[in-house]
């Protein structure tokens, strides 16, 4: 079991320094060529792997190109095109509705504000933050996905549980210049080492500052359950 640094700002600084060194090329893994494709990909990525989304989108983006085309696509047709994605029926509805609004209310352009993005079907703060950061070069928040949730709790950076509360907490202790990369680094480390079920604590660059590190820690602080 490691010992986290105090205050939490010091813990964040140490974690960032080590992960920047471990993952120097960390970036978004979704593949897209414009803002609309980015929005569609992020909507599809909820509770689904980026690898699967990229596979599906390689064909999807050749079939549909404009918001109007997505909006006018029959529900059954679009759902069939993404049927290997989790919750594909609901996601097809979200995409059709969001694209209809983009076409009718935003002149066919993906909005560039948090409020306008989160007004679209299927778009919460996480999705909006990704689109703002990578589509519009606007960084006004931290993307909190399942990896960020898990790692920040395991590392005792936060005790919050809900994504919105975690983001609000992180904004006060993560340097603004690192807001975007913080997420990418957490995702890379979550995939490579700090996995949900069986993290490789023995080979983790953060083990000595992680109070959840096995074999000494009895509890996974991410879930609150015993290892």
Automatic annotation (TrEMBL):
Protein name stated in the entry: Endonuclease III
Reaction(s) this enzyme catalyzes, per UniProt: 2'-deoxyribonucleotide-(2'-deoxyribose 5'-phosphate)-2'-deoxyribonucleotide-DNA = a 3'-end 2'-deoxyribonucleotide-(2,3-dehydro-2,3-deoxyribose 5'-phosphate)-DNA + a 5'-end 5'-phospho-2'-deoxyribonucleoside-DNA + H(+); Hydrolyzes mismatched double-stranded DNA and polynucleotides, releasing free thymine
Cofactor: [4Fe-4S] cluster
Family: Belongs to the Nth/MutY family.
GO biological process: base-excision repair, AP site formation
Organism: Halorubrum cibi
Domain of life: Archaea
Keywords: 4Fe-4S, DNA damage, DNA repair, DNA-binding, Endonuclease, Glycosidase, Hydrolase, Iron, Iron-sulfur, Lyase, Metal-binding, Nuclease
């Amino acid at each position: 079991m490691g010992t986290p640094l105090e205050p939490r700002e010091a813990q964040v600084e140490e974690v960032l320094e080590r992960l920047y060194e471990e993952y120097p090329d960390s970036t978004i893994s979704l593949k897209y060529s414009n803002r609309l494709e980015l929005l569609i990909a992020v909507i599809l990525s909820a509770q689904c792997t980026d690898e699967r989304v990229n596979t599906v989108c390689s064909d999807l983006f050749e079939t549909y190109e404009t918001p109007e085309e997505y909006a006018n696509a029959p529900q059954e047709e679009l759902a069939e095109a993404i049927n290997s994605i989790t919750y594909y029926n609901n996601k097809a509805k979200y995409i059709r509705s969001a694209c209809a609004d983009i076409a009718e209310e935003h002149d066919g352009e993906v909005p560039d504000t948090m409020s306008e993005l989160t007004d679209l079907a299927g778009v919460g703060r996480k999705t909006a933050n990704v689109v703002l950061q990578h589509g519009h070069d606007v960084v006004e928040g931290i993307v909190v996905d399942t990896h960020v949730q898990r790692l920040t709790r395991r590392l005792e950076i936060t005790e919050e549980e809900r994504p919105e509360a975690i983001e609000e907490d992180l904004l006060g202790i993560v340097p603004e210049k690192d807001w975007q990369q913080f997420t990418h680094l957490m995702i890379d480390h979550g995939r490579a080492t700090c996995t949900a079920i069986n993290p490789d604590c023995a080979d983790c660059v953060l083990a000595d500052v992680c109070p959840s590190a096995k074999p000494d820690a009895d509890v996974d602080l991410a879930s609150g359950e015993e290892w």
